[in-house]
Amino acid sequence: MIQPVILCGGDGTRLWPASRKAMPKQFMPLHGSTLFIGTVRRALALPGTAQPLILCNQEHRFLAAMQLHKAGAARPGPAGSGAAAKPSAPSAGIYAVPPGSILLEPVGRNTAPAIAAASLYLAGQDPVMLVLPSDQHIADADALAKAVAAGLPSAEAGCLVTFGIVPTRPETGYGYIRRGQELDKGVHAVDAFVEKPDAARAAVFAADGEHYWNSGIFLFRPSAYLRELALYAPEILAACEKAYAARTEDLDFIRLDADEFAASPSDSIDYAVMERTSRARVVPLPVEWSDLGSWQSLYALETLDKSGNALVGDVLAADCEGSFLLSHSRLVAGVGLTDMVVVETPDAVMVAPKDRSQEVKKIVETLKAAGRGEAAQHARVYRPWGSYESLVTGGRFQVKSIIVEPGQRLSLQRHYHRAEHWVVVRGAALVTVNGEERLLGEDQSTYIPVGGLHRLENPGKVPLELIEIQTGGYLGEDDIVRLEDVYGR
Length: 489
What we know:
The strands form eight sheets. A six-stranded antiparallel β-sheet has the order 22-23-24-31-26-29, with no helix packed on it. A five-stranded mixed β-barrel has the order 8-11-9-10-14. Strands 16-18-20-21 form a four-stranded mixed β-sheet. The chain is built from eleven helices and 32 strands. About 6% of the residues have low confidence. α3 crosses α6. The longest helix is centred in the first third of the chain and has 16 residues.
């Protein structure tokens, strides 16, 4: 039995403004699904795999759980069980994911500590772990299955197996693995890990047949990884052992101790272990693959028009060539663009030459330094019960669009500085105000006075959509006192 471990900790800042810290690229909807759900389905499709163990940042726990539920992959069985549980409707506002399926990182510490935490969780049964980043595109699941099968005997024997993508072009944006002697059919020793090369070296690597792109996919037993971590990065192991020993259960999640995990050095598995161990092995993986680390890499996966343009959303292009135009909320028109990227979201527009699109992270750094919210949050903010978006803001008023998912409910709360007026646009709303319950349908409304104790719930089977009008002297999100909350906030 192979135990998939899916890593969901990245911020995806190079795909800003569509990907942001609060909604990174692995959770973004792309082509009808998300990279995260695509990874889960890919793992479940492999022969002999158990239900995945999900490892994600605590800030994204409800995103991960909600997407699992909506995709029908919700309620993976306990790690190592191999038995899929049937999806069920969420009850009492809590997503139906059994305890133990989602392991939470309180802070980001890169892949070496994250995989250490997963290894400690799985150490009792010591299955072979298949570590999969959640933000990659892999076109051929069968090719992945064949590569995993080739590497499995080495992993079972205590080696640390990684998978090298057979390069299809010179690529300066990826790290490389240089293979060594073939030790078993399709399995090579690792001669070296190579940093991102310049264009000349990348051309050599792509042609010599000895170098592979570093995929970040791994196959090994927890005991093997923990043994090598103890040899080469004992401070990481010590911190992770303390964080795991002090873990707590939080609703449907396993939460590592924040202080102990934060004490771990931040390092990748490549630097901490794989570049130093003698037990590293590499299996070539000939497949269409991308880590989707830039808008240029996403452009390469889109369907192009006759002029080589990728046009997504409400977009018009006149005399444009080789460009990527993406609209989320309004008409985007391009004239005379060549090899450009234009990405529109409700609160930001990014324009860059396609071959410099990775540099968008400089914009994110500038936004962070200026303390601007666009670095981390979208206009639509996601919560465990659904989402909201601010539509209009004035001196003493704000208008929001609110969506509450079926079966979900907000906390029992009050505000000391604002009143609220709710108008139902779609669905049904069960509203509680100062102990009095009222069921509202479409086009009906209610009023919550300043200080009123209230709760909003969606008792129906379709999303509840409503417009909220706030009035008052202070309209900040911190003007909220929760008296009861099913999400434990």
